[in-house]
Each structure stands twice: as structure tokens, then as C-alpha cells.
């Protein structure tokens, strides 16, 4: 007799839902579960996350995607790092570049050696020693080269030390991964949840939809955004607020035309009056936004400050997005796992929101492959460690 497969239900589409679905749908026929994703037409995703960090290639490699095809379909560009501007004082800039910095000198890490000798040499910038930063500022791009055969570990080859990530249109990324997931066999339902049925154990047993359909499940994944339709509203899990560490609580997002045919291979993070603004270059447009603390500036003042700083002509209206910094203490509670904004948010400075989505979707997949559906302790402990490490950074 064939063994009955367990049912996984994902609530919410957008980046979080479709990244999670794509990971769970890999080799779906060989798994011991089925996957259903429920997406509401009446709830629009935030859709401003357009930058990533190098570990996104762990997602691309896991899904066995062709990155050239992916980039072509998501309006993508490559990213060597984050350019910080005006943070310590007006006119100063610094590239937080990806990849290796220099090589050890007499077993001393290059960064330590540079700090120890900078005052003697008069060096004021470490940027020239970052291959990725040098490439980015010179409008060059090439994938990381393999190390020459027979090279010593201490030999430094700049083209072997390049590391990069992607900029992309979040809505196009969700569309790309939705097609991938549905092709792999997940069930996609377009409807809105009207009722959540809880069992006596406190677990979620089923969701009732506005099309009168009832969807049963063994494991529910909450990708419903910051509202946390399941994990917060039904299971009453609370976010530990981190506003005392990260006081920014609003963002204004707007898209503009590109002003040049030469597209920078880096994200910009530029200091502003009450926060900072991002500039993310895609092939067809530029994503912009102002992350600010409403305690020090009004929404209208922030909007005017952002509009005055734009390089290109706006092609969308400014969109104000309120948020609370902090994370759930228990993102996996009972039979519900929160992934994405439902689990928390720490601000977009280092493009870690999307990173946390695929990081924990991959971790969940591994646990399910190990047939470990009950023990949530390692997942929750890892989540706490990773999010606090990012908060402190």
C-alpha cells in the first residue's frame, strides 16, 4: 500500500512564498509530501526587495537554475557590493565589497596588516585592495576565475577573489519562481483565507477560503507578510521589537528611469537627514527608497527630500511603507513556520531580507528531507542566532 503523503500549505505568494515553494518543489515526486500555495489577489506584496548578497547563489545552485536565463527574466543586473556615501561626513565614500580582501602576510590577515601600517604609509582607503570594489568602480564585470593549478594557498589572484550577487525586480522574480514551482507540481490556488481552523492541540488543521474551498494541511508555512495571518493572528506569536537598536520605522519607495547606459554593478546606500536612501540599478529602471525614522522627520518632508535627490525621472508614485524592526522569538510554533516578513524585519541596509527567506526555506527543506517534522528547536535556535547577528552587524 502506498504511503499517504503529508500536506504542506504555504499561505502567501510574493518573494517569500514563491522562494519557499520553489525550494520545496525541487524533486517533488520523490518527497513524502505535497505542496499547495494559496495566494490572494486582493493582497499586494511589498515588492521593493530588489537586492541580494552572494549566498543567493546557494539558492540558484540548489534549484539548478541557469543564472543567465534568470537574470534575463527578472530585469537583473550583477552586484559586487554596497557603496556607502556621506555616512561619516559629506563627500566620503566606502565600498562594502564582496569577496576576499588581500592575502595573509607572514600569517597576519591582510586587514590587520593594513590597519597596522596605514598610518605609516599614509593610506586612507582600503578600496584599492578589494578586487570586487576595483572592478565595480571601473564598470567591469567578470565571474570569479578558478585558481591556477598548483598555486599556493598564500598566492593572491584578484580575479579568483571576486564575489557577486544580483539586483532584480522582486515581482518578476516571484513570477519566475512561480512558473518553476508549478511546473514541478505544486498546487496554486488564488483565493483569500476567511477562517483558520485550530485543533484541540493548538495546531492549525485547515484553512477556509473565500471560494468555499477548505484546505487541510499537516504543516503550514506563513508567508503572508508582516500581518502574520497564521503565526501572529491565530497562534499569537509576538515579535521582539528592536527599535532601540534600529530606530528607522518607515520607508518611501519609488522607481525612476535609468540615467545612463552604463549600469553600476553595486547598490548605493546614501546618508540622508533622518536615515539613508538606496539606489538599485536594474536593466530597465532604477529602484530608489528612503529609510527613515519618523520621530525626526514627517512623511511629507521625507518624500520631498527623496524626490529632490533622485537622479532619474520618476515612473511610479512614492509609496510609504511603515515597518517595525524586530523578529519572532519562535518562528516555528506548533505546525506553523513563518518565513519572510511574517517572521520579522531588520531593515534593508545589507539586503538580508531575501537572504533570510531562502536561508530558512533551505533549512526547512533539509529538516523535512530528514523526516523531522516535529522538532523545531534547531530551526528556532538557528533563526535567533542568524537574525541577532545581522541586527548587531
From TrEMBL:
Q: Which InterPro entries match?
A: FAD/NAD-bd_sf, Flavin-dep_Halogenase_NPB, Flavin_halogenase
SUPFAM superfamilies for this protein: FAD/NAD(P)-binding domain (SSF51905)
Name this polypeptide is given = Tryptophan halogenase family protein
Species of provenance: Paraglaciecola aquimarina
